[in-house]
Design a protein that fits this description.
By secondary structure, the protein is α/β, with parallel strands linked by helices. It is built from eleven helices and 13 strands. The strands form three sheets. A six-stranded mixed β-sheet has the order 5-6-7-3-8-9, covered by helices on one side. A four-stranded antiparallel β-sheet has the order 11-12-10-13, with helices on one face. Strands 2-1-4 form a three-stranded antiparallel β-sheet, with helices on one face.
């Protein structure tokens, strides 16, 4: 599959500080790629380098076969960018904004068609300052599409939006992917990345700490699937002695780690045979957010411990 973005050995230093420290990843054409990391991880610096807004210290970067820094003018005609919390002239109407962007890019967009693509047709003649947060983000997406870009960089496009507005943006992103466009998505909503992204990369302290599909990252770094049941500590002790599986207890919730497909039946049989009152059983598994919090937390704790030992 052709590559929309290729990054190898990327380094960005500010004096002695390495904000990005030897980053490698590839983004295939026509996929949604989620780039995740806590604040200060190097995420924004990496994205700005990809967009041609910041020069790198070392390494190789290619977006659509172009160097973002030395060939930025050519690249900017082929990419779309929507910043977090998109803003525009308050009294400008969406249709007018699209025509204005068309002049800037030297294109002739059809405002009605673009607004329909982002599901904003009913607000074509509304002033920008009367739009809701989700509608403003949709207009930002429409403007990012004025040049018919092959790659779109979306910086936390659903931050601060209500659940309905967020789902509206998700639908637009899915449609962009179905059109064959590449979407480079940054977000603090891990469930959003898990739902939308074909590939995920997690950056922390300037280094990629996990990369792959959401399911592969969860499988590699998450906990096994667990059977969860509500019951007293005595039930947990009974299960520890009768099923031979790891058992944990947290505020009345008992979890038993499952190793194969027969384990749930064994555990439920043991629960029933115990004669101890219980209720509300079900199976649970780690999400991408669970794995993210665990990996980042473990790295931070390790660095604190290392600092104390020096």
């Amino acid at each position: 599959m052709a590559e929309a973005i290729r990054v190898h050995g990327l380094v960005k230093r500010y004096g002695p500080l390495a904000a990005v420290d030897g980053v490698d990843f590839k983004v295939p054409m026509g996929q949604v790629f989620a780039f995740l990391g806590p604040n200060g991880a190097g995420k924004t610096t990496t994205v700005e380098i990809l967009e041609g807004l910041r020069n790198r210290t070392a390494g190789e970067v290619s977006v659509l076969g172009l160097d973002p820094w030395s060939q930025g003018r050519q690249l900017h005609q082929q990419i779309g960018v929507i910043p977090q919390e998109f803003r525009f002239f308050e009294k400008t109407r969406p249709a007018e904004a699209i025509r204005y962007y068309g002049v800037l890019f030297g294109t002739h967009p059809d405002p009605a068609e673009l607004l329909a693509r982002v599901r904003l047709s009913d607000k074509a003649d509304a002033n920008f300052d009367t739009l809701s947060g989700g509608q403003k983000q949709k207009l930002g997406l429409a403007l990012a599409l004025v040049s018919e870009p092959k790659v779109l960089f979306l910086d936390e496009p659903t931050t601060g939006l209500d659940p309905s507005a967020r789902r509206g943006i998700w639908d637009v992103i899915r449609n962009l992917r179905s059109e064959g466009r590449t979407v480079f998505l940054t977000t603090h909503y891990l469930e959003e990345a898990e739902l939308l992204a074909d590939q995920v990369a997690i950056i922390h302290h300037g280094k990629i700490i996990a990369e792959g599909t959401s399911s592969s990252i969860i499988a590699a770094h998450g906990r096994p699937e667990r059977l969860r049941v509500e019951g007293p500590p005595s039930l947990a002790e009974y299960l520890r002695s009768h099923v031979g599986l790891p058992v944990t207890v947290d505020r009345g919730q008992i979890e038993v780690a499952l190793r194969d497909k027969h384990d749930p039946i064994r555990v439920l049989t043991a629960i029933e045979e115990s004669g101890i009152p219980w209720k509300d059983f079900g199976t649970v598994h780690d999400t991408l957010e669970d794995v993210f919090i665990q990996m980042v937390g473990e790295m931070d704790e390790g660095e604190v411990a290392a600092g104390r030992s020096t």
